[in-house]
Every structure is written in C-alpha cells, then in structure tokens.
Design a protein that fits this description.
The chain is α/β, with parallel strands linked by helices. It has a single domain, classed as Carbamate kinase (3-Layer(aba) Sandwich). The protein has 10 helices and 8 strands. The protein has an 8-stranded mixed β-sheet with strand order 3-4-2-1-5-7-8-6, sandwiched between helices. The two termini are 17 Å apart. It binds glutamic acid. Glutamic acid binds next to helix 3 and strand 4.
Length: 255
C-alpha cells in the first residue's frame, strides 16, 4: 500500500512546544516497520513552527507572519534532524520536500513534484513533506497540513491518507462539551449531517481543526482514496489502521 501519514503538531510536541520524544520515537519505529513490511510511507509533517517556538523559547505561537516564518525556519531543521536520526536507526533514508500552494497550482511545478516523489519512492526513501512556511505568505500558502496531506495523497495516487491528531476521530458533537457525543467509525458519504458535526476543535500549537480534516476527506475520497482520522497518542494504532480495523474515523473513498 502507498500510505500518506499526516502528523500534526499536537502529536509531535508537548504543550511547551518541545518535542514529545517518546511519541515521535514510537511513530518512527512503527512507520519504519510498515515500510519494512512492503508499504510505501510518505510523511506530511507539521511541527516546524511549533518546534521553532520551543527552540527559540518564545512564550507562545506567534501570530505575525515574519515571526512564524522565522520559527518555521528554525523548527524545520530540528524536525528533519529528529526524523533523520530516528529513521536512520531502522536503516531508512528520509528526504525533505517543502512546498507552497503555488508549487501545486502550477502545472510544471506540480509535475516536478510528482516526478521527484516517484523517484524517491523507487529509491526506497521516505519523503517528508511540509509547507515551505518560510516563504509562504497568505497569498501562496496552503495554510494547513490536512489539506496539504490530501493534495499530496491525490497527486501521488496513494491508497490511504492517515491524519493523526489529538482527537480520536469525528464525533457526532464536540466531545469536550457534550458527554453524549459518539465517535463515528465509518463515513461513507460526506453530507450535510457530517458537515454539521464539525466543531471548532483545535489545539494550541496546531493549525487545523475538524473542518480542515473534513475538507481533506472530501478531496481524497472523491479520488477513491480512503482517509482515517485517528488519535496520534498511540502510534501502534497505525498497524490496525493499515489492516482496515476500526480505529478512529474512516472516510470511504468513492469507488
Ligand atoms: N506547516 C506548519 C508547521 O509545520 C503547520 C501547519 C499545520 O499545522 O497544519 O508548523
């Protein structure tokens, strides 16, 4: 299977903005194992800005563009250094690709991106993609990595997009506010009822909430690709998700 795993900042970092070492080590171990089992794994990783915030000891996530971009420039190094070190332990070679909205919208650049990805996968590398936050501004940004994950999964004809977040999946209501909220295991069609379940749930460090995840689900399911939203707090869940077991919420690709 060709699997795109999107990891949000809230999964990678503690609330302090510093790396959740145990979590990231486990994630890299499981993804390495999935790759050893014959799957192609592509990572869309957030965390550049969040980790830059930690590394630069900023009090909170910046709101102005230049500070966000500066934090991303610092944090992206830390992020790739971490992935390189951890995946190397399992003999996997990582590759960094940073993209902006313009790269994806421009046909020639998109084709270059697809060709590079295809070659990297042929070479057995593990591509790690993030938005090029240091040059993206409002006009050319994709904005959130849920959408980026969906664009990547579609462009490279993935079989599955897994979005790991700090929420178990899509609930019938906001689980923080409503104790009767139920987790949906399977969504066959994204209709108005599903749209109505989107709360404004988000975290301190990340960018997307449920709305960006549903948007991502719409993009990929239209292309026949399944998408799963699951909690990133237990990386071992990735095995069950790949096996098609009931973890999180699975949006079924249109066949
Ligand atoms: N590209 C941003 C980062 O790496 C995150 C975007 C998102 O959280 O969706 O910090």
């Amino acid at each position: 299977m060709r699997i795109v795993v999107k990891i949000g900042t809230s999964t990678l970092a503690h609330k302090t903005g510093l790396l959740n070492i145990h979590r990231v080590e486990e994630l890299c171990k499981v993804m390495s194992d999935l790759k050893n089992a014959g799957n192609e794994v592509i990572l869309v990783s957030s965390g550049a800005i969040g980790m830059g915030v930690g590394k630069l000891s900023l009090a909170k996530k910046p709101t102005d563009i230049p500070t966000k971009q500066a934090a991303a420039a610092v944090g992206q190094c830390e992020l790739m250094y971490t992935y390189d070190r951890l995946f190397s332990q399992y003999n996997h070679t990582v590759a960094q690709i940073l993209v902006t909205g313009e790269d994806i919208e421009h046909a020639d650049r998109k084709l270059n991106f697809i060709n590079t990805m295809a070659r990297l996968l042929e070479l057995g590398a593990l591509p790690i993609i993030n938005e090029n936050d240091s040059v993206s501004t409002a006009e050319i940004e994709i904005g959130d990595n849920d959408t980026l994950g969906a664009i990547v999964a579609t462009a490279i004809h993935a079989d599955l997009l897994i979005i790991l977040s700090d929420i178990d999946g899509l609930y019938t209501a906001d689980p923080h506010k409503d104790s009767n909220a139920l987790l949906l295991h399977k969504v066959e069609k994204i209709d108005e009822k599903i749209e109505a379940m989107i709360g404004g749930v988000g975290s301190n460090l990340g960018t997307g909430g449920m709305a960006t995840k549903i948007k991502a689900a719409k993009i990929v399911t239209k292309q026949g690709i399944d998408m799963v939203i699951a909690n990133g707090d237990n990386p071992e869940n990735l095995y069950d998700i790949v096996d098609g077991k009931n973890v999180g919420t699975r949006f079924i690709g249109e066949k």
